[in-house]
Structure formats: structure tokens, C-alpha cells
Design brief:
- This protein has helices at residues 10-18, 40-58, 88-98, 135-143, 171-175, 179-188; strands spanning 2-5, 24-25, 66-77, 80-82, 102-114, 118-130, 164-168.
- With 193 residues, the chain is of the alpha/beta class.
- Strand 5 and strand 6 (118-130) form a beta hairpin.
- Helix 3 (88-98) crosses helix 4.
- The chain has a single domain (2-188), classed as Maf protein (Alpha-Beta Complex), CATH 3.90.950.
- The chain is 33% helix and 27% strand.
Amino acid sequence: MRIILASASPRRAEVLRNAGIPFERMPTSVDESRRPDERPEELVRRLAEAKARSAAARVAAGAGQLIVVGADTEVVLDGLVFGKPASAEEARAMLQKLSGRTHSVVTGIAAIHLPEGAVRIGHETTLVTLAPLTLEEIEDYVSSGEAFDKAGAYAVQGRAGRFVTRVEGCYFNVVGLPLARLYRILHELGWPG
């Protein structure tokens, strides 16, 4: 049974590769705008499902048994959702707010079994604490370029790992793909791996 990852994220692909889960990539493009009054958990679940459905719609009829997986990750602090920074200025502002604080990383995951159409949708929340950061540390980190294309403007598995003092919950969720939850979902949908 084939697995299709509806994501262009190299981090999600690396998590699957390292876990020995064979997959194909099919990046999608969906509007990631947050709806008014939408809770972070609702947002990530909706976007994960939209990505999975977008990829599933592109799969050729008669492609056989497969599971399409979509995911979306957001960083949440004090009710504010921190997506991917659009600029260096926005990345600096995010990191200043996260500095010395504990925040939530919420990832929605959706899996669609084709051709049957069975769907599983869930989310995972992990608490992450960052050490207090100096303005120089923030500037150096943003200048490295690693802050971009990542929710909350940091990569726990990269240079920002030196600022993370505590992770409560699934580490892989912070990377962008809650591996243990995905593994259970894949088995629920009949993946034999």
C-alpha cells in the first residue's frame, strides 16, 4: 500500500524516511488563512484535511490502495497563532515573544484511504519552552536563514535546538509530523507496515 505525503516540507519527509515509512511526495497549495474565531486546533485540522483532499483529488483513478497524508503545524502563545514569518522583522518579533516562555506547537494530521475514502483526522499538542534570548541571539538566528518557512520562526531540530530548554510531548510534532499518532492512523487505515 502506497503512502502519499501531501507536503513539500523537507522536515516531514525526513521524519518519515528516518522512521522507515516509504512514501511519495505530492506537494499541495491551499489557502492557509485563519478563519475568524477559529481555534488553533480547528485551524490545523482543517488545513491538514484540505491538503490531504487536494492531493487525493490529483491521484489517478485506478491507482490502487493508498493513503494520502496531510499535515499542518502552528505555534501558539497566549491565544496568538504564529505561522511562518513573512519577513525577517516578523521572525524577530515572533522570537522575542517566545523568548523565555512556554508555548504550544499544534499539528493537525489527516489521512485519506483510497479508493475507499475512509478519513482519519486528529491533532497533537506539544509544549516547548525556550530559554530567554538576547537580541543578539535572535538577530544571529534570523540572519542564518533558518527562521523562515517554519511556524514560530524556529526549527527545533536545527540551530534553534540550542535555545529549547524543555519539550513536553511528542518531539516529532515540533518538527512538523506527530510520528506516533501518524503510525497509529496508518494502521487504522490498513497500512501493513
